Amino acid sequence: MLDRSNRLCLWLSRAELFTVVTTMFLTPVSAEQPWYDQSIPNRNPFYQCVGADLITVADFEQMLHACARYEKFQPVGHPLKLEYLRRQAFGHVTLMQHDQAVAMLDKILKITPLDKTALLYRARALLWLNRLDDSLLDLDRLILLYPTDPNVFLQRARAYQFYDRRENALADLASAVALNPRNPDDWLNMAILFRDLGDPLKAELSLDRAIALDGENPGLYEARADLRFRKENYAGALDDIANALRDGPNYSLSIVYSIRWQASAKLGRWKDALLQLSEYMDVYADGRDSKFLFERARLYQRLGQREDAMRDLVAALQTGDERQIRRIQVYLRNNGFARIPINGIFDLGMRSALKKCLLTPSCSNAVAQPL
């Protein structure tokens, strides 16, 4: 199976996990009750700090400057001082300025030591500063303070997961799921951990639960399709892909398009695989990736379309990849074309030999096999 770098949330790689955790850090902890006061009217003289629209980096920097200026004039215990500190902490976290965020959050926690949101934000900022032990101390404290809050267990699970401590992450996810079994995202995270721990059966069962809770989410079908493909359940993977795309094309689901043509090819559905691979190349590979050109040439050859196969093979070899060219040269030398040099150069002699090879069944069977 070809390498697939893609952006599915939390599903595949550490790089994907990094992206998702970054998004998590930029999301306010509670959408239901914002941490900072949004009720202050626009006529407030300190509107530049507490009420300005925050869209661009410049907006956040202006807000931080205003809040820092006004916060200095407020005595400890004054409500606005805490509000300004919170705004500054929020701004620094959003701009990924984690050292400054920790400094602001420390000030807040001196005023309100049990501030749940401040502890969560500080744990996240410490995590980004590679201070895992300090981050876990804050999260442990939160769990002692809020033992029935599934979100707290989820945050600690993500911290463990970020540092590949999967057994610890799985235990905390189990606690989060036990406290709130109707959150499909938690079941998805559970599936990821079971998969990474080498238990695909429990991973698929967890995805089944997630889909039962949110059957309209194409990303969940994409995740289960990928898992089934890994388990060589190609028919099941295609069923999930059909569900993921039932509302029409969705090119944000890159895994779907990556594995769809491969699953069809594994099942011998050559025409479907050819059409699906061509679509994948047009959207994700710009039609010029030599690996995919070789794969499509193989499919053309399976269907007896030798001219199309030749066209893609030539296009792949014209990319100048010496490893690919030498591979074909070695194959030609071993199949009746002894004069072909093994020099990594695609020339007219090699092109002529390749065309003759494709017209000879005994020679053409494997020339377009994937590298």
Question: What is this structure's SSE topology?
Answer:
Layout: H1 14-25, H2 47-50, H3 57-71, H4 79-94, H5 98-111, H6 116-128, H7 132-145, H8 150-162, H9 166-179, H10 184-196, H11 200-213, H12 218-230, H13 234-244, H14 254-266, H15 270-285, H16 290-302, H17 306-317, H18 322-333, H19 348-358, H20 361-364
Helix pairs in contact: 3-4, 4-5, 5-6, 6-7, 7-8, 8-9, 9-10, 10-11, 11-12, 12-13, 12-14, 13-14, 14-15, 15-16, 16-17, 17-19
Please name the defining characteristics of this protein.
single chain, mainly alpha, 371 residues, disordered N terminus, elongated
Describe this structure in words.
The chain has 20 helices and no strands. It is mostly helical. The longest helix has 16 residues. It is elongated. The chain starts with 13 loop residues before the first helix and ends in a 7-residue tail after the last helix.
